[in-house]
Structure formats: structure tokens, C-alpha cells
Amino acid sequence: MLFSNLVGQDSVKKRLIQSVHDNRVSHAQLFLGPEGSGNLAMAIAYAQYISCSNKTSEDSCGSCSSCIKYNKLVHPDLHFVFPINTSSLLDSSKDSVICDFFLEFWRKSILHNPYFNLNQWYESIGIENKQGIISAKESNEIVKKLALKTYESEYKVMIIWMPEKMHNSSSNKLLKILEEPPEKTLFILVAENQDSLLPTVLSRTQLVKISKLSDQEIINALVSNKNISLDTATDVAFLCEGNYNEALMLLEENESENFYSSQFIQWMRLSYTVKVLDIIEWVDGVAALGREKQKGFLSYAIRMIRESMMLNYADKTMVKLNGEMLDFLSKFAPFIHGANCLQINEEFNKAYAHIERNANPKILFLDLSFKLMKLLKVKY
Ligand SMILES: [Zn+2]
Asked: Torsion over CA of 82, 130, 200 and 179, rounded to 10 degrees?
């Protein structure tokens, strides 16, 4: 991770770079910043910079042997600790499982989006309904790892993400090593909420405060990284409140929404006009999407049937749709009425359940389209 890969935060970057040049790298630091501020990305970029053998005055080189390992997060002197939960593991040795067991997932998550939040992390390791913790045995492991000699760099780096999830016994074990760390060891605690940390941990770390991003920083990043218009970027920045992770999620929703709406309009037109050959071609396209996308599309279709009924019978100001979809539904809604809406809704819901149960999507969407052709012709 290069500093230049990070969104905004120029003054923090400058201060950290200066501390390396001045030889003032404090051995225990707390990178405190809200979700989506990039505190984890900043910690990795900082560690990479310290370890880079060919650094410039502004950034790591990105191509020395240390950087190449950092780019894949596999440097032997870079260690991570993060919250996990092992209760769902079937393995009988699960009680001895530590973070390293999840390291592949961890690397993948960061390389995909270093701004991810705790829920996304839990989802990626399949524990979304449970709480993750950093246990006392993890602290033992930290002490053990740091007692080893460095392999390749001057510094051993230990990045602890979400120390808020440390068990008290785990924090207490760490205190001693935070106070008197082995030589050339760098601890970076990456936290969001200062109040959830033990005062004794806080007092042993140097605070690096990372603020939420400004709208302008988010707009600049979205326009240059995501290839979207300034207008869309401005809308997203307005909604995400300085949280770049939220910005990425909103953008994804926005893209899905646009995709689903164009698919829905096409499907309804073809079904109403009974263009069977075109329907078959449309079904091929939908069948090639992933299962999650197909479910997303069916949820969207169910919502559009409901919006049509609202347009027909309820308060039109409650209908929340973008321009193109509103135009289409204003004309299409009269074909959805009391004599067919329940059945269409039921068929869409059934299809959704079948997709969840691994039904063949080609047969399912074709079958559904034939039903729709008939149902859209029902007169009220
Ligand atoms: Zn380098």
C-alpha cells in the first residue's frame, strides 16, 4: 500500500513521513479514526514506508523487494491481529485457533478494499451473526512473534486492528510489551473508538488522529479511481459523510440500481409485447449473472410491482424513483392492478426462493417470463 493509494489525509501522511526522516518512530502508536477514514490503510502504508529500501521523500518505491512483499501483505516482518470468532469452526482444535488461521481472508479483504468495516470483515469469514474478539491467547502469540528476530527489515511491525475487541485479559498481557517492547518493534493499534480502549493501553501509545474525510477528498478519489461523473461523485460524497467505505457501498448500490432498472424495463416491454425470441435472448443474459445478482434483480422487480400499485392507488409522493424509472412506471403501472398484482408478486417471490435453492436460472426465468406474458394481459 503506497501513501498515494490512500484517499486524502495529506497532513497525516506528511507528519508520518517526517517522523521517519527525523528518526522519531514511536514504538507504540494508536491510529485513531472513524470508519471509512482509512486508518488501517494508513497504518500499512506507514509500515511499508519504514521498511522500503528505496523510499523517496514522499512515498515508498513500490518495487523494492520489501515493497513487493508489502504489496501482497506477505512480508515476514509484518504481523496482523484482528477480531475473530472460532465458535462456528468444526475443527476439534478450534480452541487453539488464532488470527493466522484467517490470514488469507484478511489479505484478500484488504487488497479488495482497505476501507472495509467490522461487519464486512465478519461477513467475509462467515461470522456475521457473532461477535469477534481478540483473545488472551492472541496476546501470547504476539509476545512470541515479537521475541523472534526480524527476518528482512529493520523493524518488526505488529498491526492490531480493532483493539476495542480485545478481551481485558488480552489487553493486560499486552501492557508489559507495550511498555518495554523488544528493540526495533513497532506496534500500531488501529482503532475507531477511543472510549472502548483501556486507559492503560491509551497511556502507552502515541496518538495519531485521523479525521473523517472531507467531501472534496471523497469526490476527488471517486472521480479518479471509479471513473464516474463529477455529479454522481458529488451526490455520493454528500450522502456518505466522510466515510469512504460508505461511498463505495453507495456507488455499488447505485450501479446495481441502474442495471436492475434497465433490465426490468426491457423485461416488461418484451413480456407485454410477447416477443418470445427476444425474451429467450434476455433470459440467457440474466442466467449468466451470479446468483446474488439474480436475487437482487428479483427483489428489485418485486419492489417495482409494489411501486406500480402505489402509483395507481396510493399517494404518489411516496414513490421514490429516479427519472427514467418514474417515466416508465407512469406508463406501465396501469397494467398492474387488483386482478394480477397478487399473482405476479407471488410468482416473483417463488422465483426468488427457488434461486436461493439453486434452481436452474435459465428454466426459471423463461418459465417466469411466460407466466408474466399471460398475467400482463389480464384485464381489470
Ligand atoms: Zn520500496
From this structure: -30
- Residue 7 in any domain: the answer is yes
Asked whether residue 183 falls in the same domain as residue 304, the answer is no
CA separation for the pair 68, 5 (Å, rounded): 15
- Number of structural domains, the chain? 2
User: Any bridge partners for residue 189, and if so which?
Assistant: 30, 160
**From ligand 1's centre to the CA of 248, what distance in Å?**
28
Which residues touch 376 (CB under 8 Å, ≥6 apart)? 268, 271, 272, 335, 340
**Mean pLDDT of the 10-37 span:** 95
Tracing cell 472510549 back to the chain, one arrives at 195
Cα gap 232→307, rounded to integer Å: 24
Instruction: Catalogue the long-range contacts made by 113-118 (C-beta closer than 8 Å, 24 or more residues apart).
Output: 113/245, 113/248, 114/1, 114/38, 114/40, 114/41, 114/44, 115/7, 115/36, 115/38, 115/40, 115/41, 115/244, 115/245, 115/248, 116/245, 117/35, 117/36, 117/245, 118/83, 118/162
Identity of residue 82 = F
Residues 104 and 186 placed together within one structural domain of the fold: yes
Cα within 13 Å of Cα(86), Cβ side: 17
The pTM of the full predicted model, rounded to 2 decimals, is 0.78
Q: Is the model's pLDDT at 318 over the cut of 80?
A: no
Joined grid coordinates for residue 166: 480485545
* CA 331 / ligand 1 centre spacing (Å): 60
Q: Which amino acid is at 73?
A: L
What's the gap in Å between 54 CA and the centre of ligand 1?
5
245 part of a folded domain: no
pLDDT tier at 359, thresholds 50, 70, 90: very high
Helix (H), strand (E) at residue 139: helix 136-147
Give 6 Cα–ligand 1 centroid separation in angstroms. 17
Cα(266) to ligand 1 centroid in Å equals: 51
- Give the span between the Cα atoms of 55 and 323, in whole angstroms: 50
Tell me which residue range forms the domain holding 118: 3-212
Mean pLDDT within 114-143: 87
